[in-house]
Amino acid sequence: MKISEIPGLGSFGHYIDDVNFSHLSKEEWFEIGRIHLSGLVTILRNVNITRDQYVARIREWGPNKGTRNSRAHFKIKYGEDFDPKNEGAFDQFNVSEEDRNYLKFKRHFVEQTEGGNYLTRISGEKDAEGNSLGAFSDGELYWHSNESSELTFAPEVALLGYQHMTGSSTGFVQTADLYQSFSDSFRSELDEMVVIHEYIPGGINDREITDPNLGNVLRMEFCQFDGSEVPMVLTSPGGHKGLHYTTNTATGIKGMTKEESSKIFKMIDKKLFTDKYVYDHKYVTDNELLLFDNSITMHRRKDPGHPNRLAYRIQYDPSNVLDSPWYPYNHLPEYAEKYKKQTHELINLLQLKDFKLP
Length: 358
Description:
Blueprint: E1 2-5, E2 13-17, H1 26-38, E3 41-44, H2 51-61, H3 68-78, H4 88-92, H5 97-107, E4 110-112, E5 118-123, E6 141-144, E7 156-163, E8 169-174, H6 176-181, H7 184-192, E9 194-197, H8 207-210, H9 212-222, E10 228-231, E11 233-235, E12 241-243, E13 250-253, H10 258-272, E14 278-282, E15 289-293, E16 297-301, E17 310-316, H11 333-350
Parallel strand pairs: 2-3
Antiparallel strand pairs: 1-2, 3-15, 4-5, 5-17, 6-16, 7-15, 7-17, 8-14, 8-16, 9-10, 9-13, 11-12
């Protein structure tokens, strides 16, 4: 196993080469997990891993959560964690039109593996009727974090390239170094800030402006409730303090006017979106495994590449890699308590296993 630094991510990015999943022990896999959490982005190049091995290996690190807050929405509203491919359940539970459209649109994104696992496709491919067979099928993706307006977002993402990935790219911008570059006094101000989130049509992908079904899905998964509050600063699962500055839904700062908030956002934008903190990874082979932080790191796709590109995404919590529960908001007691309460409710509702509860 060979480890080297990724350019543009300071000390927070690692390439790992020569990993043979056919002979990789659990101890070696957990060492990779710890290496990843010591940074923010880890890229395993040219991996020999099946889709079922991928599911099982990520599951060893902690619960695979999917978009857990949208799952919780259905569980609370209908008492059912829906299989999106089972339309028969829609009428049985009197599913609303908006929720039905969400599930119908999402069903095309889900693929069952040979071992019976379900994976979310990220793909540009379409079926004979023109339905997208994966999330984010068209065009550029702007900077975003998944579940960006939720206190209880999944903090880690795994993306396994599978077919036609060469020519495409996945970009990252990390805020840990930026946060440390600010003066002590401004860091203290940032620590007290709480970001107000609203759904912004086109905030991630231009198509959501013209496709109401995609817009409905992205609203549900990124900002279901306008006015949601998340602290500006948090600590990643690996212990790195940075900004949860999610430009796809961030519209204001609590207690500030729009003008005051905009001034802060523009100042952060000017300092953050530079070569110093940004790295766009261009796929050299189809089979690359990207592990990336979703707490103080945003990602994007500048180059869609091949129209039939295919990757598989898992959102997860690295609970089993951590020695103790993750406390992202301990510097703000009000939000730390909200996080604990909501996390307990969510884990109990979805019956997620192997989760270190705060």
